[in-house]
Amino acid sequence: MPAYPALAALLAICSYATGEWPPFARALLAGLALFLLFFVMAILPGSGMGFGDVKLAGLLGMLLGWLSWTQVLWATLATFLIGGVVAVLVLALGRKGRRDDFAYGPSMLLGTVTALAAPAVLRLVLA
């Protein structure tokens, strides 16, 4: 949880340095939105999601929100897609059962990196 005020302070410094405060407000709103989304998913019966995933979602939401709502959306969609594929593979290989907990953090991080890197990769491919 100490990462929240640390990241907020760093983003506030960036807003102060650039003189642009809308990205800071968007970062805070996106962090809250993803925190709440993942919190609701975590408290659903049988979700298998832990509170660590909820905390990570809020931080990633702040980081992505600083950039744009589009980045938040793409990263969230990529996270669910990657997490779903990994879950199906883990179940198919018999590593875990349907009722077991699932570490969603790696999928969240990979979804974020994918959303951040995708525009640059597409520019290279289409050039």
From TrEMBL:
Question: Which UniProt keywords are given for this protein, alphabetically ordered?
Answer: Hydrolase, Membrane, Transmembrane, Transmembrane helix
Q: Give the signal sequence positions.
A: none
Q: Which family does the record claim for this protein? A: Belongs to the peptidase A24 family.
Q: Does the keyword Transmembrane apply?
A: yes
PANTHER family in the cross-refs: PREPILIN LEADER PEPTIDASE_N-METHYLTRANSFERASE-RELATED, TYPE 4 PREPILIN-LIKE PROTEINS LEADER PEPTIDE-PROCESSING ENZYME
* E.C. designation(s): 3.4.23.43
Task: Tell me where in this chain the Prepilin type IV endopeptidase peptidase domain is found.
Answer: 6-88
Species of provenance: Janibacter alittae
Report what the protein is called: Prepilin peptidase
> Which residue ranges traverse the bilayer?
29-51, 72-94, 106-126
Keyword Acyltransferase listed: no
Matching entries from InterPro entries are given as: Prepilin_IV_endopep_pep (IPR000045), Prepilin_peptidase/N-MTase (IPR050882)
A GO molecular function assigned to this protein is: aspartic-type endopeptidase activity
- Upper taxonomic classification of the species? Bacteria, Bacillati, Actinomycetota, Actinomycetes, Micrococcales
| Superkingdom field | Bacteria
